[in-house]
Write a structure and sequence with these properties.
Layout (H helix, E strand, L loop, with lengths): L1 H36 L6 H6 L4 E5 L8 E7 L5 E4 L8 E2 L16 E8 L7 E3 L8 E3 L1 E2 L2 E2 L10 E4 L24 E4 L10 E14 L2 E10 L11 H7 L3 H11 L10 E2 L5 E2 L1 H21 L17 H11 L10
Parallel strand pairs: 11-13
Antiparallel strand pairs: 1-2, 2-3, 4-5, 5-10, 5-12, 6-7, 8-9, 10-11, 12-13, 12-14, 12-15
The structure holds magnesium ion.
Family: Belongs to the PPase family.
InterPro entries: Pyrophosphatase, Pyrophosphatase_sf
GO biological process, one term: phosphate-containing compound metabolic process
Length: 333
């Protein structure tokens, strides 16, 4: 009798367990069904952030005549060459205001022109003295330059329509500009190709002093990078990707030592300044660029013959002047 009661109890328990498993399975199916019915992620969001252009290489890599040109179709579908310094807008289109990652009051995104892809060492740069400013490998005393230190570990390039004015001494660093567009270190996971233009979020800036010239290094991240939604300022980089800023600083401090040069220095107590300060540097270097255009040029730099042909320059200036903070020298730190 006891034995049969035990058998009944075990059978009942078995049924209960099976019932529970069936119920859990049903819930799981329901969840997946909801997932299947979710609207697909709109692909348009990603494509409108991107700067659509074609990259054309001339000559062979590693030779002095190698150039990377960027072409874009005009309204009549004919490809025209873009100047990477003058024709690419500084401000990138933002994501639609409905996207949760980019609320209406989000800071502007900027177009990053990649010169040197991460994990490579050839020193490519925008040729500011050539027509249409293509990218070429830099030369010193007739020799093509490479980083003797080794491969660079971040994507490196510049912001278009910016200029570090060598006639102007920065109040914050005490040195004049280096006569180049503003440099950018993109810390995303993906490698970006030479000549590619990507929308980035600005996170901070280092005040490097190289050969008694101010050579700002903006730290930024590709807006489509996996980390981008979590990084909004330099303190987020320090917290979530510790070591990144000091590795960048040490890279720039030491990269010329194998060429027999002394280590580079940094102003502002070597600090990586926050996003608002970096925005001030962008604002200043864009203003210097506008002054350069208005004053007709400087020592061999190649400027467009017709400034009115620069599409979106007024819009860039309007957004930069209206939405970015005052210049670093005027801002309260
Ligand atoms: Mg520079």
């Amino acid at each position: 009798m006891r034995e049969s009661t035990l058998q009944i109890a075990l059978a009942a328990l078995g049924i209960s367990v099976i019932g529970l498993l069936i119920e859990l399975k049903k819930r799981d199916n329901k969840k997946n069904k909801v997932k299947d019915n979710d609207p697909p992620i709109p692909k348009r969001q990603a494509s409108i952030r991107r700067y659509e252009a074609l990259i054309l290489e001339r000559g062979s890599v590693g030779s002095k005549d190698y150039r990377v040109h960027v072409l874009q179709k005009d309204t009549s579908q004919r490809a025209r060459e873009l100047s990477l310094w003058h024709d690419v807008p500084l401000v990138a289109p933002s994501a639609p205001s409905s996207a949760p990652a980019s609320p209406r009051n989000a800071p502007p995104l900027f177009n990053f022109v990649c010169e040197i892809p991460k994990c490579t060492r050839k020193k490519f740069e925008v040729a500011t003295d050539e027509t249409k400013c293509p990218i070429k490998q830099d030369e010193k005393k007739g020799v093509l330059r490479e980083f003797k230190k080794g491969d660079i570990f971040f994507n490196y390039g510049c912001f278009p329509r910016t200029w570090e004015d060598p006639r102007h001494v920065s109040k914050d660093t005490g040195y004049p500009g280096d006569n180049d567009p503003l440099d950018v270190c993109e810390i995303g996971i993906r490698q970006i190709g030479t000549g590619q233009v990507r929308a980035v979020k600005v996170l901070g800036v280092l005040a490097m002093i190289d050969d008694d010239e101010t050579d700002w290094k903006v730290v930024a991240i590709d807006v489509d990078d996996r980390w981008a939604p979590e990084l909004n300022d330099v303190e987020d980089v320090e917290r979530l990707l510790p070591g990144t800023i000091s590795f960048i600083r040490e890279w720039f401090r030491t990269y010329k030592i194998p060429d027999g040069k002394p280590p580079n220095k940094f102003a502002l107590e070597e600090r990586c300044m926050p996003r608002a300060y970096a925005h001030g540097v962008i604002r200043d270097t864009h203003a210097a660029y506008r002054d350069l255009l208005a004053s007709g040029g400087h020592e061999g730099l190649h400027l467009p013959a017709d400034i009115s042909s620069l599409t979106g320059l007024a819009r860039d200036s309007e957004i930069v002047d209206r939405r970015l903070p005052l210049s670093p020298a005027k801002a309260t730190l």
